């Protein structure tokens, strides 16, 4: 009897333990919350990608504006150098030619030397205008800036050359003045 009682007790205990397990139950709210969170993350990622694209476009536009500003600054400096060159030629040439110590046959040579610089400056301005107004050989902005930088250096060199010529002719005039004073001095012996 003891065996039968213990057998029944084991069967009862074993059968009650099995009944409590039953079918697994899933909480669908966790899956719904996970789905909603994934959808929200995708929306945020999409917005971030749009923001990155927008910022890249703005960066490109800023770089383009900076490039144009560099070009304009160089063009302004080149034009200022050329304006200075033209004014120097106009004023200095008149001053040199009107000097009584310049001979008549030298006037054409002096005028030609000054006018050659003006002609080169005008050619450079036309070239620069061609670079800026047309898509000259499909140049990029950096290539255009390099060309303008060369033009700027060239205009500075022309101004320097004009100043050297002016100094040279002024020295010639001073030498001739001094020579005239020496020749016109009175001798007291």
Automatic annotation (TrEMBL):
Lineage: Bacteria, Pseudomonadati, Bacteroidota, Flavobacteriia, Flavobacteriales
Coiled-coil regions listed: 145-172
Protein's recorded name: Conjugal transfer protein
Record bears the keyword Coiled coil: yes
Keywords of the record: Coiled coil
């Amino acid at each position: 009897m003891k065996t039968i009682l213990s057998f029944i007790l084991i069967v009862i205990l074993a059968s009650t333990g099995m009944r409590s397990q039953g079918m697994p139950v899933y909480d669908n709210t966790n899956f719904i919350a996970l789905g909603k969170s994934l959808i929200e993350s995708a929306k945020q990622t999409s917005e971030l990608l749009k923001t990155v694209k927008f910022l890249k476009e703005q960066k490109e536009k800023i770089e383009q504006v900076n490039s144009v500003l560099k070009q304009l600054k160089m063009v302004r400096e080149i034009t200022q150098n050329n304006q200075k060159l033209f004014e120097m030629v106009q004023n200095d040439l008149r001053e040199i030619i009107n000097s009584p110590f310049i001979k008549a046959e030298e006037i054409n040579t002096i005028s030609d030397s000054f006018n050659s610089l003006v002609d080169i400056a005008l050619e450079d301005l036309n070239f620069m205008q061609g670079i800026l107004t047309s898509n000259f050989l499909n140049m990029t902005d950096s290539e255009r800036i390099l060309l303008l930088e060369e033009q700027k250096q060239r205009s500075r060199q022309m101004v320097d050359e004009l100043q050297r010529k002016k100094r040279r002719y002024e020295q010639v005039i001073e030498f001739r003045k001094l020579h005239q004073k020496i020749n016109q001095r009175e001798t007291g012996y």
